[in-house]
Write a structure and sequence with these properties.
Low-confidence stretches: none
Number of strands: 5
Largest sheet: 5 strands, antiparallel
Radius of gyration: 14 Å
Order of helices and strands: HEEHEHEEH
Distance between the termini: 24 Å
């Protein structure tokens, strides 16, 4: 994932955080999370999984508080479909909504 020079420094100074969705190659399950650097976080998640993953989508949001509210709402909404931790048995199209 290529970014313009200084991009991460800019997003950090501005207080942006990323809400992301990670999934397997088959599209299920879905992991939701927050990161300052989604590429670095994805690499970390992938290195601890033997199944090939893909960073499906991420949204830059103005601040950790907003990102955390959305992440918490997602987890509460899909609590019955939680597989383990931040992994959910939810179709990608539903997770994106």
């Amino acid at each position: 994932m290529r970014r313009p020079h200084g991009f991460l420094e800019f997003t950090e100074r501005q207080g942006f955080h990323c809400l992301y969705l990670v999934t397997t190659e088959s599209g299920a399950p879905v992991k939701v999370g927050i990161a300052v650097d989604p590429a670095h976080r994805f690499a970390s998640i992938q290195s601890s999984n033997f199944i090939p993953l893909r960073l499906h989508r991420f949204w830059w949001l103005p601040g950790r508080l907003i990102s955390a509210r959305i992440e918490t709402a997602f987890k509460q909404h899909f609590v019955a479909r939680c597989i383990r931790g931040e992994w959910f048995d939810v179709p990608l199209s539903v997770a994106e909504e």
